[in-house]
Design brief:
chromophore; 3 domains; globular; deoxyribodipyrimidine photo-lyase activity; Rossmann fold; DNA binding; 5-stranded parallel β-sheet; Cryptochrome DASH; FAD binding; 5 strands; DNA Cyclobutane Dipyrimidine Photolyase, subunit A, domain 3; alpha/beta
Length: 429
Amino acid sequence: MKTAIVWFKTDLRLYDNETLIKAIAQSEEILPIYCFDDSHFETTQYGFKKTGSYRAQFLLESLKNLDANLRKLGSGLLIVKGKPEVEIPKIVAEYKVHKVFAEREVAFEEKRTEKLVQTELFKLRCELETFSTSTLYHAEDLPFAKKDIPDIFTVFRKKIEQETSVRSVFSSPLTIASPIIPKLNLPTLKKLGLELSKIDSRAAINFKGGETQAKKRLNHYFFETKSLSSYKETRNGMVGEDYSSKFSAWLALGCISPRAIYFEIKRYENQNGANDSTYWLVFELLWRDFFRFMFKKHQTKFFLYSGIQNEKVNSKSLNEKLVSQWINGATDSDFINANMIELKLTGFMSNRGRQNVASYFCNELNMDWRMGASYFESQLIDYDVCSNWGNWAYLAGVGNDPRKHRYFNIEKQAKDYDKDSAFRDLWLQ
């Protein structure tokens, strides 16, 4: 019997999952697996846990939901823990798997792991086939070669919008034939080297992982509240659940795809009319694509001190006391402090907040921007490798910003975006 593995990574969904659909079409039995990669739970060179407890909790919830949805179709999720290049070949040998299907990676560490797995599978005469499933526009449909992707977002966006269209989505499978899959066996946070962090009751939104919750959030933001129609006006807000879509955490783990969101925007526009706000959410999804394609083009450069530029503008200093004050919301800026306390106690921060605290870290404190990016990696529920490191490099003046060195006047920003101090009063009580 032809058995295939579907190796789930940051594509934890059934709807619009090309990897899963292609595996079903080419095999008689499907074995869905998820590997807790030991390297994702190590401490980075900057001293932070690569995956903190907020994100790990969201991941565990997402996997639980994926397993439940797979079981409704006659399948389930097999969990392994260790190094993917060791654990996946073991399963291949045990189940006599002919092919492994997986999401295609773009960032350096993830690509390296993919290559290690492929090398080990080759020894077992098992093929690894990957699919591009995480962007709005398909990599193969770009109107330029990888090396020629414009480094300036506006140039990229205009050409894409003029010359490319979004591919249609893949329906969820109706049934999945699988070998008997044991009951879901997720590691505890403790097993992952983490402690449970309770999310503060002041959190803007209570994120719960999984495709089911992602669809619920989309329906709430679009059709129940019609908040999408005013997204452009409210997206720089800082207090409350509906000033922005808050899709980022589900997008980061692939509990929902950008294309699924795009076609729901189109459905919403048909029912409620299109305006600048409905377009603006597509615009933000394009930013997400842009950073993924930048990582394809520049690879390891986004993790270097000088980024994708040749010269470095901010200092490479490290002052542990200043870093600690920044992390714990004890700087001389109440606006920065409120944002950093929100991040520390909830695993989330508004887009406006992120830009300000990153600018402050790079420009006022004059620190190595990669340390700030690494703290975000550990702390954010919605951490996405390309968006996080791409945005930090941008704000540090070593990324894709055509203005070279973007500097935020923090006091002016506080006046503009927290006029009545509602945000600061909430977090600095």
